[in-house]
Amino acid sequence: MTTCTAPVLVVGAGPTGIAAALTLARNNVPVRIIEKELQHRRGQRGPGIQPRTFEVFHFLHVPEIHERATPFPPLQEHNRGSLEPLNTFSMVEYTEPTPAIPYYNAKFMGQPTLEAIVREHLAKLGCTVELGTQLISFTQDEKCVRAKVVRHRDDDGEKVEEDIEAAYLIGADGARGMIRKQVGLTFLGTTREHEFMVVGDIRLDAKGLDRDHWHAFGQASQDVITLRPTDELGKNGWQIIMTSRITDLEGLIHDSKAFVKCINDFIGLGDDIKVKEVMWASEFRPNMRMVNKLGVGRIFVAGGIDSHVLRFYPAHQCFPPRSDAAHVHSPVGGQGMNSSVQDAFNLAWKIALVYKGFSPASLLDTYTAERLPVIAEMLGYTTEMHKLIFDESDAGRAPRLTADDNGNSKNVESSLKRGMRRGKNMYMLGVNYRTSPIVIDDSGVPAVQNAYREIQEGTLRAGDRAPDAPGLISHHIPCGSQSAVLLPSGMAGRTRMFDLFASTHHTVIIFTPALVVPFVQSVLATLQQVVPKEIVRRVVVLPGPPSEPDGHVESRTSSEEDQLINVEVLVDQVGHAYRGYTVEEQETKVVVVRPDGVVGAAVHSVTGLVQYFEGVFGKKGGMLATEDAVQI
Q1: Taking the model in full, what pTM does it have?
Q2: Please, where are the H alpha helices in 444-546?
Q3: Would you call the peptide bond into 545 cis, given omega within 30 degrees of 0 as the criterion?
């Protein structure tokens, strides 16, 4: 594929598009992001943020997402017309963070808030969303993508056509967008024609309704409404979800009076409930669909939505809500926005390397190879969770008593509780690319396809998320008149693994009991010869606790000192790194962490390291010469 220096064009400014744009901008890749709507979209939509997504934003240097998100409130079930709780339960049990998993709990943040935070970071990098700009058509060839867009001018409202030449096109333009259709991707799956749901943001005064719980009124066999309190909409703001087996909800949001009446009827508390404002609402039938591949040539699709939205009606506005182009699924499970961000992150760091000429275009094929199995398994999980709630028409939703084999009464969980409770695989920390064609693992254990497993601390394979490890202490080694260890400014001698990772570089971590052993020198020589310094960070981790300043140091030649000049040497003071990366204290091992925080290689030989770099960067002159270097 011919090199093109034109910007990357991102179509759609929802979570998928802005995550892709930010990743590219962090990598100093020119990017334009266009959005056909005249204003940024409203609506909480899918507000659940999973732990793995918090990690992605950590690597993108967007800490505000985790800082400002709010914990999941417990869910409380009520009969219609009653504030008496039938059942109170946590959707997700709180899990104490560990050294390896600092973000161990899902939280809530509405998509308008999340998008605004990310746009602020984009703006600091010189990239702003071009509102009122719609993609009309596009073509591609070996050299570039040629797109035609129409811009809506602010001053006079005129529409102006513009021809854009782009290196790549990322379609985050929605399940009904033109990009997926025009490049000929299939979108196979099912539509739950017998189900209809309404979601919305409202301001509500409710006597006696506390804001410490997520409330659900009614039964699944009849009418159900849930109300989740969110201060993002104001002190009386609530996100609602409505579904019914007996009331026709289709088209209801066209008539504001009828919609408000229906909300009141579903809750059933009479004059104790006053809907002050309907801020945003949409209606949809659940869809479970995905594409057959995620890209053709220079054009890619990314992102998913929690089901397929039909219409959207905020006050005084009418435009469709954000959906994304690669997959749609049930809102149950809170995976849509999270999968979208992770799609974008996986794709964008690879585009950055190819764009800059560091990697061959074949690297982009691994976007489909890695993400499609994840999406397929996610669709399976969310569909089963959806069925737990909505496929029990005879049982209703409320908890009930039944008899066991001995005739003793026992409580049976409601369908809502069974469907809303989350397993830890929903945290997405176990999402992996173990079967990816570019990951290298020399453990000898065959990789089994299980892309959506629960995380298991104490096991680590290439393709897994890289664990965090706090308590790493900088180890300054005198080398003549120079210091071999130079930590980035602000690190102040103490750091954690997650702060070594970023979307802009690979991190090569050499675990070794001592600095000067033949294998360490061989690894450093390989890196020095074949990998540009600016895209690979070199780190040596010694077992702790740190002894005297030269406790891990042996005599070195001048050539060995030269190799150490560009290496960060850290001591694993309390052992979190060695435990998390499954390394014995006297073992020597190399772990390569990709820009997306995934273990690309876990090897004990320079040959394995070379294999990984060939897969990502292609064969480079001089790389093979190091294969016969010393191995363990």
Answers
A1: 0.88
A2: 518-530
A3: yes
